Amino acid sequence: MLASFIIVFREVLEAGLIVGIVLAATEGIAHRARYLWGGIAAGVGGACLVAACIGLLSSALSGNGQDVFNAGILCFAVLMLGLHTVWMARHGREMAREMRDMGGAVVSGDTTLLAMAAVVAIAILREGSEVVLFLYGIATAEALTAGAIISGAVLGIAAGAAVSYALYRGLLAIPVGRLFTVTGWLISLLAAGMAGQAAALLANDNFIPAFGYQLWDTSWLLSNGSLMGRALEAMVGYSARPMGVQLLAYLLTLGTLVFLSRRFGRPHPISQQESSHA
Amino acid sequence: MKINPPFIDVRCRPVRRGGLLALLAACLAGTGMASAAPRMVELTLSHHEFTPDHVTVPAGTRFSIRVTNHDSTPDEFESPALRVERIVMPRQTITVHAGPLTPGTYKFYDDYHPETAHGIVEAK
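^ inputs. structure came back:
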């Protein structure tokens, strides 16, 4: 039971940290629950679909199908996070004001919610497909221990979800005036980390140049195999042995998102009209 | 795209001393153009154990690991140290790429059966 708990908890935690950040970043946007639950459902469905097709995916693109697929969905998630960054730069100040004055914002942002639902779906799909395959393996193997392993898995999902919720509640403790500044940075770091991971996947399969396979090695300090290493990898793209192209993609994405949020963050009379219908 | 000095790992220095040709070769290896004779390590998984569970590869070169799963359940070939993570379905063979490694030992394992299925890549 402990082994299955650890495996499931770890995967759910990695997805859950991303979901926690998304939850905090979308606080106060009207109808968000519908979108984010939709994203979670799509992620679980997608995880099952990917697990079912994994054999096919593995043999695609001369054996690199899994990596290319993961890089593809990561890049898509980065685009969606970029979309959210632009939206938040336009509406963040106004939302913070409404939340402070009225105890809740009623700004509608269906486009950004759709983008964030996609990010949630992708995070769950990536980690979830591993959980599904793990549980499938157990289901087809020893029936004797299945009960213990399933209860471990259920506990793992519950514990992972609890950490996700705790991160969300913890972020909400940030004063409203600063909340979206903090979540903006978290979203930018998340996107940068995803872009870096996508670049590393493609470079590892020789699709793009690596520009150095190992810029430095901090695995003595924090290994990517440890729980903390995994959590930081999921949240801010921590890599103990980054590739050159990985760092390049990281910095380019971070720079782009910071630029976008500055560029669209200036007071803008039109943006207030756009969002006043509620 | 300019590569600044911090982009070059200290461990790459022998390559740089080796001359421009070696550096060029390293760059080509990065784009996959010099992959004519890649080093291949063969691993099999059966009864949730790796055979062999200790392999030696030369330090400082790219190499590939081919993993065949002879069990009836899925496995996940994983190694944060080698920077690989790949699902291996029953009776399927996958190939991952790794390195160049600095001399030392690098653990790998099947994430679904880590107690029994684990091994070491040693770079010399």
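DSSP finds two helices and nine strands in chain B. Chain B touches chain A through 41 residues (CB under 8 Å).
thumbs up if we can close this ticket
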